[in-house]
């Protein structure tokens, strides 16, 4: 995302633990907790320079959450990550960290929740009919695919990984629900996306089941 928006004379600063990908034309900072340079301290420091874009590697605590969200409502574009199981639970995670609903509603633009699944090896990919028991339990029918294992994939049946994701766009309806503490639902979930990859033969039933029965 940073690579997509950099340029156009934007001032971009990242705070990371550690810097994983060196990117040209932006300022990247490693935190160092041993000398007291943690996320909150560094975030306060860079805000004094009034950058256009801030990327916080991870929101781990209440202090970072409050500074980052307040930065977002004062004219800065803020990117960050949270460890949650879904896009919707990211909102409740911020609430748990003490960020007020009206702040979340004001600052939030988009939440992307993502997980990785293995891709079926294209060299040993084979089709099969889903069994009766599996069909009844999962509500699926028809042809699925799997890798039977070959030299190309070290007999694993898989080659590489791809992302399954869900998007939660903060439109006016969602913002009102956040402010009023109402139930939030998502149209297309990670599980829906994983099912699409399964039916298109990109991933396997085993990988789909990991997503299907992962925590909400």
User: SS-based structural class?
Assistant: alpha/beta
Distance between the termini: 26 Å
**Individual helix count:** 9
Task: Specify the helix fraction band.
Answer: 25-40%
Oligomer: single chain
Which range does the strand content fall in?
15-25%
- Output the helix-strand order: HEEHEHEHHEEHEEHHH
Give the overall silhouette.
globular
Number of strands: 8
Average pLDDT works out at 93
Q: Detail the poorly predicted runs.
A: none
Describe this structure in words.
The protein is an alpha/beta fold. It has nine helices and eight strands. The strands form three sheets. Strands 2-1-3-4 form a four-stranded parallel β-sheet, covered by helices on one side. The chain has a two-stranded antiparallel sheet with strand order 5-8. Strands 6-7 form a two-stranded antiparallel ribbon. Helix 3 links the parallel strand 3 and strand 4. Helix 2 packs parallel to helix 3, helix 5 packs antiparallel against helix 7 and helix 8 runs antiparallel to helix 9.
Brief overview:
This protein is an alpha/beta fold.
Give structural attributes:
216 residues, alpha/beta, two-stranded antiparallel ribbon, 9 helices, 8 strands, 34% helix, 23% strand, globular
């Amino acid at each position: 995302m940073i690579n997509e928006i950099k340029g156009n004379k934007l001032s971009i600063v990242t705070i990371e633990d550690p810097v994983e990908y060196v990117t040209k034309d932006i300022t990247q900072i490693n935190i160092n907790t041993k000398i007291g340079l943690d996320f909150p301290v560094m975030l306060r420091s860079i805000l004094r320079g009034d950058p256009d874009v801030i990327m916080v590697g991870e929101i781990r605590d209440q202090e970072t959450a409050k500074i980052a969200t307040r930065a977002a409502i004062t004219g800065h574009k803020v990117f960050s990550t949270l460890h949650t199981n879904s896009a919707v639970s990211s909102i409740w995670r911020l609430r748990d960290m003490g960020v007020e609903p009206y702040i979340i509603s004001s600052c939030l633009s988009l939440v992307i929740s993502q997980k990785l699944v293995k891709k079926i090896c294209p060299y040993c990919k084979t089709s099969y009919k889903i069994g009766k028991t599996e069909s009844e339990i999962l509500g699926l029918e028809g042809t699925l695919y799997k890798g039977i294992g070959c030299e190309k994939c070290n007999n694993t049946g898989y080659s590489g990984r791809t992302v399954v994701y869900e998007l939660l766009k903060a439109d006016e309806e969602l913002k009102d629900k956040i402010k009023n503490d109402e139930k939030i639902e998502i149209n297309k979930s990670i599980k829906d996306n994983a099912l699409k990859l399964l039916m298109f033969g990109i991933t396997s039933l085993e990988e789909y089941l990991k997503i299907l029965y992962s925590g909400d």
